[in-house]
Amino acid sequence: MSNFKSLENLKSSYKERIRQVSDEKKSGKKSVGTFCLFVPDEIIFAADADRMILCGGKNDTISIAEQYLPRNICPLVKSSFGSIVNDGSSGVKPCSQFSMVDMIVAENTCDSKKKMYELLDNYVPTYVIDLPQRPDTSEALEYFLSELEKFKGAMEQLTGNKITTERLKKEIISSNEVRKLLHRLYELRKKDPSPISGVDVLKILQKQYFLSPDMLKEHLRMLISEMENVEPEGSHSPRIMISGCPMPGGNTKVSEIIENKGGVIVAEESCTGTRSFWDMVDEDKDPMLALAERYIKIPCSCMSPNDRRIDNILELAREFKVDGVVYYTLQFCHGYNIEKHKVHQALKEAGIPMLAIETDYSDSDVEHIGLRVDAFMEMVA
Ligand code: BJ8
Q1: Best residue among 105, 109, 133, 334 to mutate for probing ligand 1, ranked by most atoms within 8 Å of CB
Q2: Which residue of 15, 29, 103, 307 is most buried, as measured by CB atoms within 10 A?
Q3: 21 lies in a domain?
Q4: What is the pLDDT of residues 165-180, one digit of tens each?
Q5: What residue numbers bound the domain in which 144 lies?
Q6: Which tens digit of pLDDT belongs to each residue from 313-322?
Q7: Do residues 265 and 240 lie in contact, with contact meaning Cβ atoms separated by under 8 Å?
């Protein structure tokens, strides 16, 4: 749907980034792998280390993971674990990212991830940040801050570099710049018709924690400038918001189905969407406290209660003038699956139709999902 030159450059950025990290390694710079938004990038970069996201969105490593893990757990966890333990013997190309990280920085969120991290420690040193699960209490903030202080110490130990207040402030400003660019990109999607397809935006968001902030900023600036200079053609298509589980690199299945059936995705309430950039870090406060305050508020379903997420969904639906919401859950992701009921109720009261889709990474249900999306599009058109 979208036809922007800068998107072509983004596609070829994978090799460039791998080359960059491999050069950094030769010069002694450390790299860490992450799986979740709760890990503050700013602390990693302030230690002069690099980071790459390791979340799996591909189906081909799932059968490898199933040699170690139960079948009935979330495909994101299986795909990630499969990529890491894959030695190439099954014919699937091993993941270049994983072999480049010196440490994994994990977080205690859902049960599947927590238990996977215990196993990952056998393959690469894995540091786990513990998270309080009732985020709105002062005790939770205090505890999370103490966990971030420990993590800061771990990064200093890994790199041998002291993390100074000045360096943290610099990284906070830099990460806020990325967030502001993503806000500008999303602002342009408020046009009707939207100038860019949701699949294209998803592919950018999937690279958000893979590229370095400087590379990402460069790509975003080019894309935004192209988008600002075109008037979108065509007529109104049903404006859809996706809400739910993250869609890591390799997984565009449901977004593609929606857009192939005539809808246009104008917002994603997910970790490969607004949850990753909507809130800024306060640049005027003590940097560690500001980071703790910002990151503890991420409305992930692992938190309880998580009513902030419902408020965000309603606000986004209004701001982006959506005609309907597709609630997307990965199989066996109990948190997002159960929260579906609260979201459905809130959307119903707001008069916004919702379609719930629970799926995995395989293609076996593409046709079936297509039929349901078809019917939903007719309803919201
Ligand atoms: S902040 S959503 S990235 S934990 S989909 S593995 S929750 S069973 S990825 Fe997540 Fe951080 Fe939360 Fe975001 Fe578990 Fe659910 Fe699988 Fe999930």
Answers
A1: 109
A2: 103
A3: yes
A4: 999 999 999 999 999 9
A5: 17-162
A6: 999 999 999 9
A7: yes
